[in-house]
């Protein structure tokens, strides 16, 4: 077996082990872990069977096959960034809504306390 294939296999195996540990510790949610698992599987397959990458690149008329995994990686990163921005925007809107609700409740509590104080006097 080619030493490069062995190194890629070990990197993919290390990647899977780290991912499983992160899931067990609760630092990586399962719905995000699926994407990372598929990415690791893709690295494992493309490293183990480089002729598969060459065949797909030839079919897509890519004349330099090693650029195919780089392009796929960039596409995955762009999709992940878009997903993270969507989640961040959703959280930002929720935080704004919660801050407004807290401010409103604080105002209502202050008014209630003022009304109680005026009744007691």
Question: How would you portray this structure in words?
Answer:
This protein has 121 residues and is an all-alpha fold. It has one domain (3-87). The chain is 88% helix and 0% strand. It has helices at 3-25, 30-48, 50-59, 67-120. Helix 1 (3-25) packs antiparallel against helix 2 and helix 2 (30-48) crosses helix 3 (50-59). The protein is elongated.
Short description:
The chain has 4 helices and no strands. With 121 residues, the chain is mostly helical.
Overall average residue pLDDT: 88
Shape: elongated
Number of domains: 1
The helix fraction, in percent, is over 70%
Order of helices and strands: HHHH
Radius of gyration: 26 Å
Which spans have pLDDT < 50 for at least 5 consecutive residues?
A: none
Structural class: mainly alpha
Task: Annotate the secondary structure layout.
Layout (H helix, E strand, L loop, with lengths): L2 H23 L4 H19 L1 H10 L7 H54 L1
Helix pairs in contact: 1-2, 2-3
